[in-house]
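user: can you give me the structure for this one chain? tokens are fine.
assistant: on it. calling the predictor now.
[tool input]
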Amino acid sequence: MIGWKLKLWRSVGAAATLSLAAACSEGGEAGGEGGDAAPSTTAAGGEAGESGEAGENGEAGAVAAAAGGESGEAGAASAYAGLAGDQLTALRLLHLKGFVMAASRIADGNQIPEAGVLVQQGLLEVYDLAPDQFGSLNADIIRSAAEGGSVNRAQLLQRLRAAEGEIDRALGALSEVDYAIATARMTDIATGLYQNVVQADFVDPIEYQHSMGAALAAEYALERGRDVLRQRNAAAYNEAAAEASRFTALWRDANAPERPPAYREVLAQGSRVRLALSPYL
């Protein structure tokens, strides 16, 4: 069953990539998969100046195309736009960390092969597309955590912890990272991915877990920047932390429930996170 799921996911990802490429050639409309996608795209684009890299339009365009990154999944391309240097590397690392965090949550429920598949998806969708943009990350440690089908629960949990630790180490090696921007961008990715979860006649369990991981990574990014952000504005940090906690709480189950929150709920709460972060952006 897991092999079938991964095969299906790869087919969908390939189709999405072709779709994104076609959309980009038609005037860069890749972000608009529906009227509700506009807030996320606009918000992310508006942060180009916040990174201090907005003037590098040529690089921003290339980054956005690579970020289609997520095999064309909604939200990723616009979230990467305008970033460069350590800020870009940090977002890539956090994006990958989201898959590992989601896998850890799945593994806690003893779904070992499924957890390994999630890490595989993160490597294929995020790392393998731009392996030279992950700083000092040792990807072999992450790949080890993708072997869910050949290890037991305790072994996989240990490997997942090692993978998270390695990503954290690579993040720590960066010097110019604004974690308020990183939190906002990961929130955009989570919101964009969730747009594909609740369909007219089914719930997409894969996109549910991908968006859950992005939300968890957004909250982690905010926590990682706590000391610096509290020094800048303690009240704003406390408000942002509360809203980020409410955001991740929308993914109350590790696996997609029959009736997950509506996209508008996730979009609205993501907007509240961004609003709380606005004093920093």
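assistant: here you go. The chain has one domain: 52-277. Residues 110 and 197 are 23 Å apart (CA to CA).
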